[in-house]
Structure formats: C-alpha cells, structure tokens
Amino acid sequence: MQIPERDAAHMARAVDLAGRGRGTTSPNPVVGCVVLDAAGGVAGEGFHVYAGGPHAEVVALRQAGERARGGTAYVTLEPCDHTGRTGPCSRALLDAGIARVVVAVADPSPKAAGGAARLRAHGVAVTIGVLAHAAERVNEEWLTYARRGRSHVTWKFAATLDGRSAAEDGTSQWITSPEARADVHRLRAASDAIVAGIGTVLADDPRLTARPAVLAPNAGGPSNAEPALDGALTPHAGSASGAGRDAALSGRSGSAAAHLGSADRPALDDAGSRHSAGTADDGSLPDGTPAGGRAPLRVVVDTDARTPPAARVLDGAAPTLVAVAADVTTDLPAELLRLPRHEDGLDLHALLKELAAREVVSVFLEGGPELAGSFMRQGLIDRVVAYLAPAVLGSGPAALGAAGVRTISDIHRLTFDEISPIGPDVRLIARPIAQPGREQ
C-alpha cells in the first residue's frame, strides 16, 4: 500500500521507541507510540517499559494530555482490547478523544486483539500495516511466541574463521575478545532463558548467567538484537540505529524521518526512563527494582539426567530447569521438566512449548554443537548471532553439529541482517529463509 511520507516517519519513530523496551517487557510485547495533536504536532511519546506497567499508548496519552483530543496515534502493535494487569488501550484512546489510529501490526493474540474493531465502531479512523516489517522485526520474539505458541530461539556461537568452536584438545577460552564476550552477556540479560546441552555442562561446567556489570550502556552493542540499557530516552530524528534503522532499511520511511526534527517532539519525562525510581509511570518495578533486572532461567537439555549435582548451573545464582526424558529415573536435586524422547534426544518442539507455557518468550541457545544441530535440523532456530574471531585452528570441533544436511539441496539458507565489528571480532546476525518442510 502507498504510505504517506509523514505516516512513515512517525511510525518509524514509534518503532524506534518500541525497541527501547527490548529485554524488559516479557511476557508482554514491545510497543511504541507517538501521539499527534489535531494540528499534526507531536504531543506525546511512549513505550512499554515492563510487564504490569503502563502500556505505550497510556504513557504517550498522559504526556499529550488535552492535546491528544482530535489527534492521531501511531502504535506499533494493535491497541489491546482487554483488561489484564492494566486496562484496555482501545478505551484509553477513545477516552482521550483520538480521531485516528495508525497501526503497524495487528495483534495475533486472541485475548488482546479487537482494539481496531472497537475503535472503528466508535468512529475512529484506523489504518493497519504501516511499516509492518520494521515493527515485526523489533517485536519478533513476542510475535513468534504469540503466533506459534512456542519460545523464540536465538542461537549464539563463537568461532574462528574456519568455523571451529574449540581447539583439538577441547580448549576454547578464549576464541573471541572481551568485547564480544561482554556483548554476549548483554544478549543473555535480555533473554528469558539461556539453554545449553548436557555436553556443554559436562565439558565446561558453565554458570549460564548474565553478568550484572554488562547492563551498563554500550554504544557498540547490537542494534537489532538488544538496545543499550541506558537511562531516559533522548528525542532524536532519523535515527540510523536500533529499530529505527530497521524502519529506514525497509524503504518505507527513508528521508521522511529526517523531516521530524527534535523541535517537533516533546522531551520525554520519567515515563520514558528505564531506570528512574518511582511509581507505575516510570521505568522501575513497584519495589524499585530496575525493569529487566531478573535473572534469565537456565535450562539444561539433559535427556538421561547426567547433570552432576555439584554443577555450577545448579548453584542457585539463578533459577534452573533440567529437561529430561519422561522415562528417566533420577534423584537430581533440581527442578525437572519431563519431555518425550525424540529420535535423537528430547522433543525440542515440546520443550519450547513447555517453556512458552511458563511465559518464556525468548530463548538464548548457547551450546553445544550437537544441541544446536538438533534445533537447526528441526527448524527451530529463528535467529543466529555469530561471533567470528580473526583466527584459524585447522582442526577441532565445529560450531554446529549434524543439522540434517545430506546433500547440498538440503542446505539451510539464511539471510544476513547485520555485520558489525565487535572489538577485533565480527558479529553476524542472520535469519533462516523459509524452506519447505521446515517450520520457518
């Protein structure tokens, strides 16, 4: 559809705002909102900061006040039409007197959908589909969770240029640089669960935690994967980073965003801050804990319950779940998730559905190569984040195990989204291309 330039620009800003909530809203989606007054000036902006806190529309409407009456709201996800921990955003928009609502993506959740229909029934003009690709990309974890009923999976690996994840004797510390490792911890911290296989637990005894120190701002951090966890939002125009860059790359915003200078936008108050202390309008939890401060769930895929009782993954530093076969007898001192056996281990589809039932929206898959191969073979990897070091080994284990490729026609094709330097290393972000017979 033909998108008016100004609509594209304001939605690009809303998408950029939505990206500020990455890693802190689960199990809710990330959402951004821009509210214009009747004359077309920006009256309010907001994004969803944490589950249970005010939704993006509410934050933007509160900032806009009476200026919202007769105005337009740009929202990255269809306004909800149900009462959960907060009231329906469709009702908030109606109460504020909004005359037009522009939506990027329709809400696929049966519980929350229907906001567009309610708005139209009350005479509000509603447009859906503006910058849908960019809005889907910034909210991809939650949309996978809502549409497929399973957790979204990001597979991360670090390797040499020749694809080796360790030396011939098994040593792997450290292939990549401190900068790359800090980047990994930021991605861990933004995930709901960190998953590793029993082979990795036995070989490396990892803790599978996110180091708190990496929650500081990092200008060199990933744009599509997770925003820097900094403080208050600063109004800016035509940003080429984060979700705003995704919107620009979609070819539907282009120079339009540059037409909205900072003078056209209000300064964001504490409602746009992710770390300010206080009440439900700011970026902290009711008890003052910064949003996103929870530790990701640690999940060990351990078909036959071989995890040692003294393993560091069971050290109590973060919650841990050990997935074992339903027919295994064990006295392992850990919370167990019993799953059906699959032909080459556990049923990974069942694992992701069980995790989704526990409101695990995003999974960060870290090891090892055999488990990653099983996820790839079953079409369960949604995004790949690879760190390549400028080094070669020539021998040693590969980063990926058997992935069901017997001939070149079975190859798993991906498309690159980002290629970025991280210290002396390179980070690649890629996504699988839909292929017949595979879930994507």
Overview of this protein structure:
By secondary structure, the chain is of the alpha/beta class. It folds into two domains: about 5-145 and about 225-270, Cytidine Deaminase, domain 2 (3-Layer(aba) Sandwich), CATH 3.40.140; about 150-210 and about 295-430, Dihydrofolate Reductase, subunit A, CATH 3.40.430. The chain has helices at about 5-20, 55-65, 90-95, 115-120, 130-140, 140-150, 180-190, 200-205, 240-250, 350-355, 370-375, and strands at about 30-35, 40-45, 70-75, 100-105, 125-130, 150-160, 195, 295-300, 320-325, 335-340, 340, 345, 360-365, 385-390, 415-420, 425-430. It has a nine-stranded mixed sheet, with helices on both faces. The longest helix is centred in the first third of the chain and has 15 residues, at about 5-20. The two termini are about 25 Å apart.
Number of domains: 2
- Helix-strand makeup class: alpha/beta
Q: Termini distance?
A: 25 Å
CATH superfamily of the largest domain: Dihydrofolate Reductase, subunit A
- Tell me the β content: 15-25%
CATH level-two architecture of the largest domain: 3-Layer(aba) Sandwich
CATH class of the largest domain: Alpha Beta
CA radius of gyration is 22 Å
Largest sheet: 9 strands, mixed
Question: Which topology of the largest domain does CATH recognise?
Answer: Dihydrofolate Reductase, subunit A
Helix content: 10-25%
Major β-sheet strand ordering: 10-9-8-7-13-6-14-16-15
Shape: elongated
Instruction: Compute the number of helices.
Output: 11
Q: Which regions contain 5 or more consecutive residues with pLDDT less than 50?
A: 213-292
| Residue-averaged pLDDT | 80
How many strands in all?
A: 16
Helix and strand run: HEEHEHEHEHHEHEHHEEEEEHEHEEE
